[in-house]
Amino acid sequence: MIPVTEFRQFSEQQPAFRVLKPWWDVFTDYLSVAMLMIGVFGCTLQVMQDKIICLPKRVQPAQNHSSLSNVSQAVASTTPLPPPKPSPANPITVEMKGLKTDLDLQQYSFINQMCYERALHWYAKYFPYLVLIHTLVFMLCSNFWFKFPGSSSKIEHFISILGKCFDSPWTTRALSEVSGEDSEEKDNRKNNMNRSNTAQSGPEGSLVNSQSLKSIPEKFVVDKSTAGALDKKEGEQAKALFEKVKKFRLHVEEGDILYAMYVRQTVLKVIKFLIIIAYNSALVSKVQFTVDCNVDIQDMTGYKNFSCNHTMAHLFSKLSFCYLCFVSIYGLTCLYTLYWLFYRSLREYSFEYVRQETGIDDIPDVKNDFAFMLHMIDQYDPLYSKRFAVFLSEVSENKLKQLNLNNEWTPDKLRQKLQTNAHNRLELPLIMLSGLPDTVFEITELQSLKLEIIKNVMIPATIAQLDNLQELSLHQCSVKIHSAALSFLKENLKVLSVKFDDMRELPPWMYGLRNLEELYLVGSLSHDISRNVTLESLRDLKSLKILSIKSNVSKIPQAVVDVSSHLQKMCIHNDGTKLVMLNNLKKMTNLTELELVHCDLERIPHAVFSLLSLQELDLKENNLKSIEEIVSFQHLRKLTVLKLWHNSITYIPEHIKKLTSLERLSFSHNKIEVLPSHLFLCNKIRYLDLSYNDIRFIPPEIGVLQSLQYFSITCNKVESLPDELYFCKKLKTLKIGKNSLSVLSPKIGNLLFLSYLDVKGNHFEILPPELGDCRALKRAGLVVEDALFETLPSDVRELMKTE
Known about the structure:
- One of its GO terms (cellular component) is endoplasmic reticulum membrane.
- By secondary structure, the chain is an alpha/beta fold.
- Among the domains are: about 180 residues, de novo design (two linked rop proteins) (Up-down Bundle); about 180 residues, Ribonuclease Inhibitor (Leucine-rich repeat, LRR (right-handed beta-alpha superhelix)).
- It is built from 22 helices and 24 strands.
- The strands form four sheets. It has a 17-stranded mixed beta sheet, with no helix packed on it.
- A hairpin with a 5-residue loop joins strand 6 and strand 7.
- It starts with about 20 loop residues before the first helix and ends with a helix.
């Protein structure tokens, strides 16, 4: 007998695939096994037992009288005499005899085979084989999507990821945290979500709702007391699982081959069920116990008509009825499967019940093959999809990243990165991390926090622990903030710096920082910035004193004008974009410092002359050629710093003598050839930078500048220095390098406060030993060729080398 296990290969699949077999597939598999046993049993009987037994029929046709008499005589002669009666003395054994046919065994076998082939109906002959073939086809159809390469690869990948997600310690931890919430906490979270949605109607509500995460529970911040529950290795494995799930989702959601193949194989089974029921119902009556056989083999056997007995007809008849019952149940189950496939939208899957049960509100719905496999999983055990959903949640992923960050960045490690920034504050720079470690908020001495190239930064309420925090820098970071943290920043933050590539990276909550004093914005803004809704909110920054915009604006935004009443310093670095329509500057009457850098200005804006409180003006990297308007600066009595560097200025007008309040003046990186003597009538100048020009001569009137402390003519064409220069006895920095000087006057020894001297790149052959009288000048502050330094006396050299 053929063992049923030989047919296992037609339906065998990996044990893990059972999670994708709903109850109807399991039920039909058992029905297939029952039908397979019927087929195997019938085939075994066909092989091992006689199929049919035939006997010849006697025919007595009408004949003449002589023939009849001969036959009667023959019959009489062949009729056996009555047996003698037995007696006690002579017992007689009686032998039972039937009709003799004079056929041998081979002739009977021949007759049986001929009648089996010619007289027996084909259904009665091949019924077991039909059952076997149909059952194998059913089994192939049921498991074909597990074998087809295009679908099996997806299924194997999905089952592999599903098992890892199910067994991951992170899944258990995430679900245990949310299951630990009581119903009151869940209700509070739902109420917060509703209030957050309705708050969009108000201005303050829209501000917080845009980025402040009221809907995210405070438990998002990982509790460090339980951080040890997940070791580093498990954390890395969970992190890898998140990446695998993301990539798998992108791959599987592109098509619906699994759904299509499952529908097609189910339709095929239904069609086959209908065919089997149709022809079996019609032919089952053909299985008869007695069969009449008429074959023309009289020349070989002497007989033509035979009566045959189909030995397995009774059994096959019962088996066929049993088989029809199984097929009917199988078909009804397939019809139910079709109803389930078409009645429900299986190419979309919603995690709504998981979101409600776990409180993880950001689990996304999925579609196509991903959705279909999850529907199939639910038929096996809904717990699988619930645990799998944890790895679809961005909030859950962020919590895992947060945990890994906290383990990696301990408070001691963070303290090692502390440094003092340009504002003389204790700063912690964090660059290119996966998030913001919660351990940052344990460094209570922190004054400035700098975050650079960090995506999805979440500032929690625990930032309130940083009592000394005053400065926050966000460089190419997308930041969300908790409402409690926003309240803290509104009261404490003084300086905010934001560098962005896209305006969407501008945090809208920054416009509510009512105590903010300095705001630095670096990034690309629209040219018509005055119509930008986000920047119009600058008017709410009532304490803003310094505003710096490094962008590509075409005009001064109206939002800046709205804060002009308290704005003291404004910097616009325009990256070459022409700045026009500067009339709004006239309204900034309290402005003390103004920087218009790289704004493609060809003239000094007339609006500047209305800023009577202006103390510093920087017009760096513009296209200034003529500065005749400089005479109007005489009305700016408080102007002390004027920087016209990196332009194309060819001369300095004589009107500059009227700027008697100037203390710092920079004309470096221009095309000036002649210095007017009237320049030195500005006798309050302490800082004068004329480097990188075409100046050939320094007027002796420079000696009038008795307050001069810094003087630079680096990279010019000066051939000699006037002795009057050395009358400027307060001079501390003197840069005369890269000129055509050949002699350095011994009077340089009069500059007792000189601490920095650059003479490199000239034609000096010797340095005057009087340099030794400049007691503040050390070797580190003397920029000169080594060979030229050796021309100084040894005692002077030794004196300069000492600290």
